[in-house]
Amino acid sequence: MKVVVFLVINFFCFLINAQVLIGIDTAIASALRTNPKIQLSQLDVKQKKALIRGSYNLENPSIGIEAPYGNKFEINVQQNFQNPLIYVQQAKLGKQNILLSEENQHLTKWQLIRDVRTVYLNLQYAEILVKQLSNQDSIFHNIFLSSARLYEAGDLGLLEKVSAETKSKEIENTLLNAKADLKNAQLQLQLIAGLKALNYKADEVIRKSNTKLPDGLEFDSAAIKKSALLSYYEQNTKVQKQNLNLQKTKLLPGLSFGYLNQVGEEQPINFHLRYGITLPLWFWTYSSEIKVAKYQYKMSQSQYAIAQNAYSSKYAEILNDIGKNTSNLNYYEKEGIKQAELIKKTAKRSYDAGEISIVIYLYSLNEGFEIEQRYNEAIRNFNQAIIELNYLIGQ
Question: Hey, what domains does the chain have and what are their CATH numbers?
């Protein structure tokens, strides 16, 4: 019985600790399906579509009773209507608001895709960093153990032994921090993508993105038409312009229809119909609303212009970052990584042959590992710039 319990416990521990492979496309699909931001934007569209039904809203009819001759109460009904053009303008405003909500939904989608890609990239980088540091930790720990034995045997000085111990402890601590960062990256992916498990692992190691870049890394004027952010601000100006048209239309007179009994019982016809118009005499109220609408329209135009400038600036900044990181990657791919391997191999061979001290050996190994780490950082920075570029151009 104890054996069975032991096996069951170990099985569940294995399930808890087992890593689940996940690809970027799967993470994005899960986020688009479950993330609350997407659900909120979808509800906002539905809300705007429901509100458009109120574009043709009528005032509540007035129903009362009165006694024209003091001997009998009669019912009277009065119904006021706004100018028909107002209902038309309200319907147009409702449609523009629906388009604005749809643009917001589109923008939310691309922002979420960008965020998932960034979190996934952080997971890939955290994984490769833990792998590299684990390798370093093993190497430097073995060097420390070897130096401790040589020191005890009197074949190594205290400085060399302390140097090896210090470097080993430093890498060990860095590895612990890297593992904590990895757990955090897994948690962030779980939360943003709405995943159930926690211990996720990227299905491929971090590598340079193969996204096709703009020719010559120059500004693409056509990309501005694909920007979800700019489309949102552009649509907002249309909403505010339509609202201004609506406020101006409210200056037009409305209509009034009603029924009122004003005759006695001896008359053959005992009802009268009333027709009239409603006049917007309190012009200052309408004038104030028109001014507010004008300011809102001008503000939306300014916001759109600011967004365009920010877009152009961000686009240029990202292209510059891509250019810099491309140069870095070219260096590491052509020379840096080869030099790192050569440094580590030469250092080990020289140390084994007694040609260099353990301090120089540690320094040389550390230099080789740092080159490899900077290479991975360059890949991450390049891929992050590509993620931002794809967000701007809607890819």
Answer: 2-393 (1.20.1600.10)
